[in-house]
Amino acid sequence: MSKIHISKVTEAVSKLCIDANCYLSHDIRNCFLKSLETEKLEIPRTVTEILIENADIASSGCSPICQDTGMVVVFVELGQDVQIQGGNLTDAINKGVADGYEKGYLRKSVVKDPANRINTEDNTPAVIHYNITDGDKLKITVAPKGFGSENMSALRMLTPSAGVEGVEKFVVDTVSAAGSNPCPPIIVGVGIGGTMEKCALMSKQALLREIGTKNPDPYWAGVENELLSRINKLNIGPNGLGGELTAMAVHIETYATHIAGLPVAVNIGCHVTRHKSAVLSKDGLVEYDENIEKSDTNTQLAPKITGKKLTTPLPQAELDTLKAGDMVLISGHIYTARDAAHKRLVEMIEKGEKLPFDLEGQIVYYAGPCPAKPGEVIGSVGPTTSGRMDKYSPTLINQGLKLMIGKGERSLEVKNTIKETKGTYFVAIGGAAAYMARCVKDVEMIAFEDLGAEAIRRLRVEDFPAIVAIDTKGNIIE
Length: 478
What we know:
By secondary structure, the protein is α/β, with parallel strands linked by helices. The chain contains 13 helices and 18 strands. The protein has helices at residues 6-22, 26-38, 42-61, 89-103, 147-150, 163-178, 196-206, 218-232, 316-319, 339-351, 393-397, 412-420, 433-437; strands at 2-5, 71-79, 82-85, 127-133, 138-145, 154-158, 186-194, 247-257, 262-269, 276-280, 286-288, 308-311, 327-336, 363-365, 403-406, 424-427, 440-447, 456-470. Helix 1 packs across helix 4, helix 2 (26-38) packs antiparallel against helix 3 (42-61) and helix 6 runs parallel beside helix 8. The relative contact order is 0.16.
C-alpha cells in the first residue's frame, strides 16, 4: 500500500499548472523547426519564427506562452493500492490549481455560473477525470485548455451507414470551419465510438499523445495519416495565413459502441496544446515528465519582421494605403477590450451614456492580459477570437471605431460595415502573447476594473506586429 498525503498532490498540481503554461513541449517545437525547412511562403515562415521566439521568451522568464491560460482539465490515474491521506483528493487538486495560478501570474478565466458569469478569481474549479488503475502510484496530468480552440471543437452522432468516410468528412469539415480561430498549427484529437460523453472524452485524451505517435491499430493509424494529409491541404497554415502546416498531428482514439450508433468528437488543440504530468508514489516521491523546452536565453532564430511602420492615431489617407496581407508594425496607443467590455460599451450607447473613451480614430485590441509580475509592465497579452465581438462591433463602428486588432475571421455584417466606414481589421499572431507583451511599454486602466482581464486598458506599444486582414476597400487576406 502506497500512502500519499494531499499536500504532495497540491504541490504537484501547482507546479504542473505553471510548467504547462510556460514551457513548450519538445515535440511541438521540433515540429515548428521542421516546417521551416520546407515552408516557402514568407508570412507563414515569419509567423512560425515568431511562435518559436514567443516560446523562448516565455521559457526564459517563466511567463505564460499564451494569455489564455485556460480552464484546467486534470486526468487522474489512481492506483488501487494508493491511499490518499490528509483530506479529499478533489479538494487538493483544486487547491493546487488555485495556488499555481496565483504563483505563476496566470490569468483567471473561470466563471462560477454559465449565466451570471462572475469570475471565481482563482481559476477553479478544475474539470477532473478519474480512472482507477492497477498499482501503487498516482499519475496526474494537467492540461489547461484555452477556449479559442475549445470553442472550435464539435461532436456528431453519426449513423453506422456513414462509415469511416463520414467520420473523415466530419473531421475535415470541423477543421475547415475552425479556420484560424484555434491558433494553428493545431493538433486534432478525434474520439470515435462509445457514447456521446465517451467519444468527447477520448477526443480530449487524444491531445495528450506525443506528436509522431500512432494509433496502435494499423487501420486507424492509416486513417490518422490520411486525415493529416487532407487537413494540411486546406492551406489554412500558421495563424490562418496560409502555408503547409495547418495541423501537426491527428490523433484518433476508439472504443466499442452500440450497433445503432457511430459517435464522433473532434477536440482541437492550439499551437501549444499544453499538458504536463507527474507520477506520485510512496515516501512522497514525485517524478515530472521531461517533455518541456526550457531556455535561459532567447532563440538564435529571432524573426526579422519587416513591415510598414504605423503611428497612432492613423489618418484615413494612411489607412487607405494599406492592403490586405500587408505586415505592419504599430506604435502609439491602443485599447484592450473583449467580450464583457464590449457588452458594457454597447449597453452604455443604448442608454445614451458617455463612453469611458472616445472611439473615434482609436484602435481596439481584442485581448485580456495575464497579471503582470513584479517589474513587468504587463503580463502575456495575445489576441482573442474576434468573432465573439461581432455581435457588438457594428454598433461600436457606427460610433466612430475604425480600427480593430484580433484573430480569426469576421462575420459578413462586420466585413460589410468595415468596408462601408473605410475601416481596417488587423490580425495579430494568435498565441504569441509573451512576444506581444514585450511590445507594450506602458499600461493605464481606463474602465471596468472589476472585469479583471476583460477591463479596458490603454497600452502604449512600440513596433507591435500585425497583418492587415481587411483593408479600407473591403479586400480580405487570402
